[in-house]
């Protein structure tokens, strides 16, 4: 039996509108969420036309589809998705004469898009991860919809049939998990390295940091919950899907100070000639469907958002430097930069918000233009909500002694760092309070018993 895709009704209307406007074919991405029982499609986004195609001169054959352009679009879109949302597949709306070639074109695109997205990830998929991706084919004349899936983990995967079901208000009351993660990452640059490629070194450092996030303890509304319990257990579920409403959960992230003493470790001393420092606070958010979601689904979505948001910001910074100052800026000697801040934008009919990143000198008009180009969504300036008040800074130096290991910015002071540490200790103390009380009771009982029998 194939997978079932529950699709927001607005997606059906969007695809129908595209079929009447664009000829002879149009491609795009399907965005949503995987779950063990079913998949959810909450948005569809057409591939933006290239400059030379904006005069309605789209190539008439599917063989001329620009894979690189589509995969680049998919990478850009994935940055604008909060935790829990992924590119679920691709679609083609084509005229009847192109229908025969559509399925082959879809298969190529699905594997190309997945390969491109996988290269950017700093996390590995779980063993039980859903690896099927949707290939949606729509005939522009008859409006017939054919949905199939391919297993992207298997290069020889053949098409499987899938159900495509529309539903109203599908994501109107999804659940959200919010957290703020304090970042203080120090990445040394080895003196033996002949060329300090800061982009490569930064990615290596983030890779090590991402493993710490994977091993962290997550408190949901102040509690540690078992992975297989329902996220909403003990809470009232919001009902009604006619109006957008979100139920938020506050999450605290406790990173482990060490990896335990079960394995022996050997200290290595290496001569360094420089360092990269990332310091600040990042706002993270994940959304999860409201069909009895498990705690492990929600935590996994949030972990990936934490890792993605910092990695994406560093990528955006390097791209901006290359565009504005040339490729040589990948190897600068001493620099101080503020990473772009995160913002969220609501979407009509859904409780799920889209995400993006903004440099301090960017105008709202630039952000609005990006949403139209990348996601085919009109955004009002008053709906753009900056998520963070504290800037995350990127500092690099090829003179190891010329800059503090943990530089202090105007926005991140010692008092705040002490407050964060104090809050973390209090949370850990709350975790262990039961053990402390139990031990105290046991000691008191033993003393009482000793005195009683002594008398």
UniProtKB/TrEMBL annotation:
The chain crosses the membrane at residues 433-453. It comes from Dromas ardeola. Belongs to the ODR-4 family. Signal peptide: none annotated. The gene is Odr4. May play a role in the trafficking of a subset of G-protein coupled receptors. Pfam families: ODR4-like (PF14778). Keywords: Membrane, Transmembrane, Transmembrane helix. It is found in: Membrane. This is Protein odr-4 homolog. One of its GO terms (biological process) is intracellular protein localization. One of its GO terms (cellular component) is endomembrane system.
């Amino acid at each position: 039996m194939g997978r079932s895709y529950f699709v927001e009704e607005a997606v059906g209307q969007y695809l129908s509108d595209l079929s009447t406007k664009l000829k002879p074919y149009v491609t795009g991405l399907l965005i949503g969420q995987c779950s063990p029982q079913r998949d959810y499609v909450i948005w569809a986004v057409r591939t933006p036309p290239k400059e030379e195609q904006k005069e309605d001169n789209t190539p008439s054959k599917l063989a001329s589809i620009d894979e690189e352009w589509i995969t680049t679009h998919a990478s850009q879109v994935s940055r604008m998705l909060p935790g829990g949302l992924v590119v679920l597949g691709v679609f083609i709306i084509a005229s009847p004469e192109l229908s025969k070639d559509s399925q082959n074109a879809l298969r190529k695109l699905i594997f190309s898009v997945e390969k491109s997205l996988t290269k950017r990830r700093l996390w590995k998929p779980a063993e039980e991860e859903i690896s099927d991706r949707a290939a949606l084919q729509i005939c522009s004349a008859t409006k017939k919809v054919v949905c199939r899936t391919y297993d992207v983990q298997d290069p020889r995967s053949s098409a499987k049939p899938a159900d495509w079901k529309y539903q109203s208000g599908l994501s109107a009351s999804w659940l959200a998990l919010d957290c703020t993660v304090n970042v203080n990452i120090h990445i040394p640059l080895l003196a033996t390295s002949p060329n300090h490629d800061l982009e490569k070194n930064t990615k290596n450092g983030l890779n090590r940091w991402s493993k710490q996030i994977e091993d962290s303890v997550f408190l949901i509304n102040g509690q540690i919950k078992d992975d297989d319990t329902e996220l909403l257990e003990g809470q009232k579920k919001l009902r009604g899907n006619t109006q957008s409403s979100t139920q938020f959960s506050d999450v605290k992230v406790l990173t482990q100070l060490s990896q335990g003493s079960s394995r022996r470790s050997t200290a290595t001393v290496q001569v360094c000639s420089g360092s990269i420092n990332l310091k600040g606070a990042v706002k993270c958010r994940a959304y999860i469907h409201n069909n009895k979601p498990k705690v492990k689904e929600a935590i996994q979505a949030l972990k990936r958002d934490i890792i993605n948001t910092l990695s994406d910001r560093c990528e955006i910074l390097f791209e901006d430097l290359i565009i504005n100052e040339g490729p040589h800026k990948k190897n600068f000697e001493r620099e101080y930069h503020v990473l772009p801040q995160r913002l969220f934008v609501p979407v009509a009919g859904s409780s799920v918000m889209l995400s993006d990143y903004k440099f301090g000198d960017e105008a709202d008009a630039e952000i609005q233009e990006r949403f139209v180009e990348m996601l085919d969504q009109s955004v009002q300036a008053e709906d753009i909500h900056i998520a963070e008040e504290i800037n995350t800074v990127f500092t690099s130096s090829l003179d190891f002694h010329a800059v503090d290991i943990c530089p202090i910015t105007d926005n991140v002071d010692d008092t705040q760092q002490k407050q964060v540490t104090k809050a973390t200790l209090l949370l850990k103390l709350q975790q262990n309070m039961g053990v402390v009380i139990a031990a105290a009771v046991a000691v008191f009982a033993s003393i009482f018993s000793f005195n009683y029998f002594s008398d």
